[in-house]
Amino acid sequence: MKPSASIDKPASPWWLQIFREKQSYLDILYLLASFPLGLVYFVFLVVGISVGISTFIIWIGAAVLAGTMLVWLALAEFERSLATQWLGASIISPTQPAMPDATFMQKMVARAKNPMTWKALAFLFLKFPCGILSFTITLVLLAVSLGIVITGLIIGLITAPFVALPLVISGKSSPDQQLRKYLLFAGTGYGLAIISFLFISQMAAFFKYAARKLLGVSDEESRLQEMANRAAYATEQAAQADQRRRQLIVDMSHELRTPVASISGHLESLLMMTENQDIPSQQESLARYLNVAHQETERLGTLIDELLSLARMESDELHLDIQAFPIREAIEEVYELIAPLASKERQITLVRGVAPDLPPVLADRQRLIQIMLNLVRNAIKYTPSGGLVSLNAEMADASHIALIVADNGVGIPEEDLAHIFERFYRADTSRTRATGGFGLGLAIVHDLVVAMGGSVTAESKEGEGSRFLIFLRVAS
Ligand code: ADP
Prior knowledge:
The chain has about 475 residues and is α+β, with helices and mostly antiparallel strands. It has 14 helices and 7 strands. The radius of gyration is 43 Å and the shape is rod-shaped. The chain has helices spanning about 15-20, 20-55, 60-85, 105-115, 115-160, 165-170, 175-215, 220-275, 285-315, 325-345, 365-380, 415, 430-435, 440-450, and strands spanning about 320-325, 350-355, 360-365, 390-395, 400-405, 455-460, 465-475. A 5-stranded mixed β-sheet has the order 2-4-5-7-6. A two-stranded antiparallel sheet has the order 1-3. A hairpin with a 3-residue loop joins β6 and β7. Bound molecules: adenosine-5'-diphosphate. Adenosine-5'-diphosphate binds near residues 379, 382, 426, 437 and 439.
């Protein structure tokens, strides 16, 4: 069995150890390399940034700046590994939050907003002047101390037999004097070398510190970053869940639509059959039941359509076709569609008016018609027979047209007015249930108007009537 005790080698004194450590030579290498690297970074950054800024008015500038930023981030990564491997710096790398759904531009903006990007740039710029300085100092220190050591060696070993020995033999100098001279040179060289190595290690320590501060994150920052990443992940998960929910509503509404439309169609046919044929009086109730079933399926169909509209808007499936067109045309279309029915079935008069010289409006024509139909139908629904509903357009201000739907109907209680654009909100449940609404129509109107870049408000006085105002942009 081998003896387990090992004999510890006596540690050499620090002034000897400093020359035996690999780190001392890695420090020298790092400092010498800092100058050419710093120069390359400096030239690249100055050219990249200047070209980017000077061409910024055309798209090339943004691309050049983005490209320069990507390269400087890569250079910072390289410097980070250099400082870690050569200087032994412990640097906590900053992590860019993953943005899988973001566009290239959004990612670049996020990078530009990250302070780490600018700290990295500062480090790369700093590398040039500090690199020159450290390169020069390292080279001078090494050259001087090496020069003195070599001189000492030359005096002591090479020239001694020719210069010192004859002097000693002829009695002009003592061996002690010559030895002292030699030791003085060798000692000075060695001492200077120690000082040089100490100084070099201090310069390396400065770079190490700068790299840690400018290229890495502190413990606290890293913890914060970790927490921010977790929060971003949780938000992303929540957003995905939300998106799935919306998609579910879209899919579900799609699926419900066809069977409900089919039931409604069949009920309608049955109704027509019962109306056309001369049915015995005991079967009259059949017609009544069919009527109710038909109305309810119609209602269900409306609800599905409204849900689908809202879900589409939420899941960004709403594609607007914004164009400039005369609002008069759209108003006329709505009037033609509704006026005859309103007067025939409800004895309500629908009037319309458009201010002269109204500029074209900027909107999605079909959606605007949908909005107006919704408001006018509501106005008719909540106005007693013999009432008046008006549809007008006029200038609201220099850049907006106001579309006004007014009625002299039942009005909306003050406490409800602030909520009527909310989903499923019905001002007076008992009253409106009889009229068949689900409280989604105005929410859809609101979302559509906002999507078109406009706004909608409502004014009303209970018992006197209501006014809905939609503000839309004019085409310039
Ligand atoms: P609904 O389908 O129930 O009519 P809306 O979202 O269109 O749903 O309207 C929400 C509520 O606002 C209605 O329930 C009704 O009480 C009220 N409302 C809307 N328009 C008018 C109006 N012109 N006059 C009076 N009340 C109205």
